[in-house]
Amino acid sequence: MPTMADVARSAGVSAATVSHVLNDTRPVLPHTRQAVLDAIDELGYTPNTLARSLVTSRTRSIGLAVSAVSNPYFTEILQGVEAGALEHGYSLLIADPHDDPAHERKVVQLLHERRVDGMIVAPSADPRELVSYLGRHEVPTVFLDRVVESSQHREPRFDQVCADSAEPTAELVSHLAGLGHRRIALVAGRPRLSTTSERITGYRHGLADAGLPYDERLVVHGDSESAGGQRATAALLSLAAPPTALVTANNAMTLGALRALRERGLSVPHDVALCCFDDFDWADLFTPRLTAIAQPGKEIGAQAVRVLLERLAAPERAARTVRLPCTFVHRTSCGCPGGPERPAEPRRPS
């Protein structure tokens, strides 16, 4: 089996230079770097990751804890994390916490025991045990998609990467109000999730901007899942004065809402207009085509990797929260007679 010394001899450089190329620890001249890479390919050299981790105390691995199986939106984020990790020479260990606080705490501990260099986590609605564990063990961590308010955890604070939620939701409400709707309902997500509270805030702002009163009966939680979205929509349609327009707060609940409308024999948008948070692959294939807010899932994942690597390089720097803009995708479920084929430009978070 070829060694690093064999690569160095073949490339005509020192073993230290080979190490710098492999570990990206120091700039190497382009022609020298290429000579090392060619020697690696020619000899079939494979770095000994275990030995390297014993010397550097780094495994060049990242732990990712997201509910990728139960939430399709996180699949796109996962792709972004994987691409970002691979680009920087990191492997990925993945666990699904199932949005359950107790299970979340267990899987994060298991990832930590595998000696990952850092962690990327989409926290549950009750992240107290998670935050306590990460803080006690000083695990470099980036919270993903959902933020944890500073009042909910002690120092050290954690970096966070997410999409803007409030302003895009307000935009959906304003759009529906501009079409003449006065009873606009919200199928909200799981209580206590930051994304849920932010989208409710945006919903209220959208109503206020349109001069419409807030009616708490028009906000029903669908628990961020399809069955819950179906139940919530059925409850809204059973009101004495049902809504004429719906905003659904994630892709799973959008599917549930469409099922509930179909069960009632109602059509979109002729009987009820619909706008949704989360664009997805099939949104343009429905009849009518779904007007939606598209989140930059892959970029959120890639940005989380970049922020984590910055944390590993500078452990003492102040924590930060990065919010990425969403895109309003105008189609026809809102009741407009044909939306533009191209999505609007992303709106920057306020």
* Approximate shape: elongated
Helix amount: 40-55%
Strand order, main sheet: write it out.
2-1-3-4-5-11
DSSP summary, beta strand count: 12
Largest β-sheet summary? 6 strands, parallel
Average pLDDT: 89
Count of alpha and pi helical runs: 12
What would you note in describing this structure?
The strands form two sheets. The protein has a six-stranded parallel β-sheet with strand order 2-1-3-4-5-11, sandwiched between helices. Helix 6 (101-113) runs parallel beside helix 7. The chain is built from twelve helices and twelve strands. Strand 1, helix 5 (72-87) and strand 2 form a beta-alpha-beta unit. The chain is α/β, with parallel strands linked by helices and 350 residues long. It has helices spanning 4-11, 15-23, 30-43, 49-56, 72-87, 101-113, 128-136, 166-178, 194-209, 226-237, 251-263, 297-313; strands at 61-65, 91-95, 118-121, 141-144, 159-163, 184-188, 219-221, 245-248, 273-277, 291-294, 321-324, 327-329.
Spell out the blueprint of helices and strands.
Elements: H1 4-11, H2 15-23, H3 30-43, H4 49-56, E1 61-65, H5 72-87, E2 91-95, H6 101-113, E3 118-121, H7 128-136, E4 141-144, E5 159-163, H8 166-178, E6 184-188, H9 194-209, E7 219-221, H10 226-237, E8 245-248, H11 251-263, E9 273-277, E10 291-294, H12 297-313, E11 321-324, E12 327-329
Parallel strand pairs: 1-2, 1-3, 3-4, 4-5, 5-11, 6-7, 6-8, 8-9, 9-10
Antiparallel strand pairs: 10-12
Helix pairs in contact: 1-2, 1-3, 5-12, 6-7, 8-9, 10-11
